[in-house]
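Researcher: We're reviewing a set of sequences before deciding which ones to prioritize for further study. For each one, I'd like a predicted 3D structure that I can look through quickly. This is UDP-N-acetylmuramoylalanine--D-glutamate ligase. If possible, include the structure in token form so it fits the rest of the review sheet.
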Amino acid sequence: MKHPDEYKGREVVVLGLAKSGVQVAKVLHERGAVVTVNDKKEREQSPEASELESLGISVICGGHPDGLIHEGVSLVVKNPGIPYSVPPVQKALELGIEIVTEVEVAYLICEAPMIGITGSNGKTTTTTWVGKMLDAAGMNPIVAGNIGTPLSQAAQEASEDNWMVVELSSFQLKGTETFRPKVGALLNVTETHLDYHGGMEDYVASKAKLFANQKPEDTAVLNWDDPVCRELVPYIKAGILPFSMTEELVQGIFVRPSYVPDTEDDLERVIIYRDYSESETEIAKVSSIGLPGRFNVENALAACGIAIAAGADPAVLGGVLASFRGVEHRLEYVAEKAGTAYYNNSKATNSKATTMALGSFKQPLVLIAGGLDRGSDYMELLPVLGGLKGIVVLGETRDKLAKVAAMAGVKHIISVDNGESAAAVLQQAVREASALAEPGEVVLLSPACASWDMFTSYEERGRIFKEAVHNL
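Model: Here's the predicted structure for UDP-N-acetylmuramoylalanine--D-glutamate ligase, in token form for your review sheet.
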């Protein structure tokens, strides 16, 4: 994509009226582009339309008209969640029109160096952690993108004295061309979003675009324990800073003594940074980290690596690791009721995320799971479900999950029917789980599925769960 200033007087179509779409439309309009915003939602569901029209931006709601994309259009900026199969995107592809996401536009107008963080799991926690670390180091971070301020808005406000810390999805990265983060981090890769990407090959390729334009003076932070991350090494031109929980690295961030896969023990572990000269810095004891769960140790390693790559003093990172208490809907402690602890992990939208969450608790546990059916058989959960006291399943995948739970030998399997409203179903699930759990045990919402069969978002699902717990 050309710099946004070069679209002055040229036609640009923005697909999607979400916050990012509204903001990127304003950015391009201010630079003289002739902008049309299109959304399939009806006008009464699009309150942002009037604001854009008052600025002189054309807005078309209620569907995608046939003439929307034509040879006179120079650029299409697509909401990341809109699939490439929809007619206006297909038409743009046929005509050879550039299709990008907001990330590309924001990068081209941003004066601050960017940190891009992606992965199948842990993005928001790690991104938030990095922002707090850079703040503690006096580096003026701006956290934006999927969390916080829309990226194109933050990019306009940023200066060379800031660091832009950005959480990025595969959907966003797929629509980039020139995007080049100063620091790019890939946390992990697991099977997810295959309905959008059509297969793992496109999903991994989209994640890998984070590194496509990096140069040797940039840094790629990689999970050395993830085989997919390591397979990308030959294609990365940037300097590589690895992190590992299971290997003492020649250079990078690691845990000493290392975690042994599939085992748990109480050895006192420390997080170590070893630089290119093989000089070591002890960052923190693992036991001091403020978030529970082995997967949050992995997130902590990644955050430390990213912050160090950006120039933060390793000495300030330990305090941030200890003080950070997490992000809503990500293994969030909700309450204790009649001696049972309740945790909200609604952001767990795939089996890997739920597997990691289950490994965070030693107490007997009742799991609430289920949601949108994307075609998975959930056999990945088989090894970890056997330790459950019980499971309550709901949503489109309830029968699949019940089948796997039965194979795992779970004694108590309760299926909540979808005949009522979504809120009523989840409230019933909480009551069923509460009836199974005893004092000293845990009830965990960790669905292993997206929320869209019943809820508008994982956030809505998590909020309803928390309300149901408080109302017990």
